[in-house]
Amino acid sequence: MRRKTVLVLSLAACALFLGYTLLWALGAPEAGELKVEARPAESAALLTGRDDPDTLPGELLPGQTVDINTAPVEELRLLPGIGEVLAQAIVDYRQTNGPFDSPEALMEVPGIGKGRFEGLAEKITIGDNA
């Protein structure tokens, strides 16, 4: 029985030694270190929340704004409470009346009242057109 215990312990020690040697040879991180590798496309996905850097995200990132004087329908739809119909109404209003001279002028678009405007006021800008 004692021989079996010694044999098992010896095999366990060899397995640990070989495992550690293999991890070291493969460049495993030391205790407390974190090894992270990312390709550029994966980095873009992490930073933007998007898998494809050429597509729009599903929502705005914190601090990100939309220029209501230049944004196409797809970008306007990123604003909270703005669907395809209201986004198209914004574009149509802009084409008919020219650029917005203030963010509050967005309330002149049918369907955008004070409550809806207050929900997106900090997420819109009028760019250099003021």
SS elements, strand count: 2
Biggest sheet strand line-up: 1-2
CATH fold assignment of the largest domain: DNA polymerase, domain 1
Mean pLDDT: 77
Major β-sheet annotation: 2 strands, parallel
Distance between the termini: 89 Å
H/I helix tally: 5
Written as H for each helix and E for each strand, in order along the chain, the element string is HHEHHHE
Q: What is the CATH top level name of the largest domain?
A: Mainly Alpha
Give the name of the CATH superfamily of the largest domain: AF1531-like domain
User: Which residues form runs of ≥5 with pLDDT under 50?
Assistant: 41-51
SSE-based structural type:
mainly alpha
Please state the second-level CATH architecture of the largest domain: Orthogonal Bundle
Broad shape: rod-shaped
The domain tally reads 2
Helix content: 40-55%
- Note the beta-strand portion: under 5%
CA-atom Rg in angstroms: 29 Å
Walk me through this protein's architecture.
The protein has 130 residues and is mostly helical. The chain has 2 domains: 1-30; 56-125, AF1531-like domain (DNA polymerase, domain 1, Orthogonal Bundle). The chain has 5 helices and 2 strands, in the order H-H-E-H-H-H-E. A two-stranded parallel ribbon has the order 1-2. Mean pLDDT is 77; it is low at 41-51.
Main traits of this protein?
130 residues, 2 domains, rod-shaped, two-stranded parallel sheet, mainly alpha, 2 strands, 5 helices, DNA polymerase, domain 1
Question: What is the strand and helix layout of this fold?
Answer:
Elements lengths: L1 H24 L14 H9 L17 E2 L5 H4 L7 H14 L16 H7 L3 E2 L5
Parallel strand pairs: 1-2
